[in-house]
Specification:
Elements (H helix, E strand, L loop, with lengths): L3 E2 L7 E3 L8 E7 L4 E9 L8 E3 L3 E3 L2 E5 L7 E7 L8 E10 L4 E9 L10 E5 L9 E5 L5 E5 L1 H26 L1
Antiparallel strand pairs: 1-11, 2-3, 3-8, 4-7, 4-9, 5-8, 6-7, 9-10, 10-11, 12-13
Length: about 180
């Protein structure tokens, strides 16, 4: 997969911070002058897209693309409307900031329904486009001549967010090529 670069940037903020149906939320995503666009997505615990994003530049497969129109902005504000459903207990808000250098930063926050602790800590990881399609593995020859293959546990941990980020990045890049 791509290289994981640690990030110390603050994560996204959501107001209100408790999940309720039929509610409009203000999503604040920190950005800088290197960010060209932000892709936002709201998903349930089964990874199904939920709700409606307002004033997005483009909507695609449950995700919304916001182009940064002012390079001096330090914050993108977006508005998300939760669905009318009593079956949703928690929603994960995902933000992918895409730089002019084709690097994506992923941040997410979970809203829980009527709980004392209402938000989970923000998760932030940064991905760069992969240089090759070969996954790093190590081959170890045991004294009994048995070949054993091991791979990094980190690839399993970051597989889902990276796959989501790459999928949204590919949709974004494809839309840029087509239009």
């Amino acid at each position: 997969m791509g290289q994981i670069v640690p990030s110390t940037a603050p994560g996204i903020k959501v107001n209100p911070d408790v999940y309720e149906s039929d509610t409009t939320y203000t999503i604040s995503v920190p950005v800088n002058n290197n960010v060209s666009s932000v892709v936002l997505r709201a998903v349930d615990m089964n990874n199904n897209s939920l709700g409606i994003w307002h004033r997005a530049d483009r909507d695609c497969n449950g995700s919304s693309l916001y182009h940064m129109k002012d390079s001096r902005s330090t914050l993108l504000r977006a508005y998300w409307e939760s669905p009318h459903s009593a079956n949703v207990s928690a929603v994960k808000i995902q933000a992918f900031t895409i730089s002019f250098h084709r690097m994506a930063t992923f941040s997410s926050l979970t809203l829980k329904k009527r709980a004392m602790t209402t938000t989970s800590p923000s998760t932030i990881s940064t991905t760069r486009p992969p240089r090759t399609h070969v996954l790093p593995t190590t081959r170890i020859l045991n004294p009994t001549s048995t070949l054993t293959t091991t791979s990094s546990v980190a690839s399993g941990i970051f597989l889902s967010p990276i796959a989501d980020a790459l999928q949204i990045l590919l949709v974004f890049l494809t839309s840029k090529l087509l239009f």
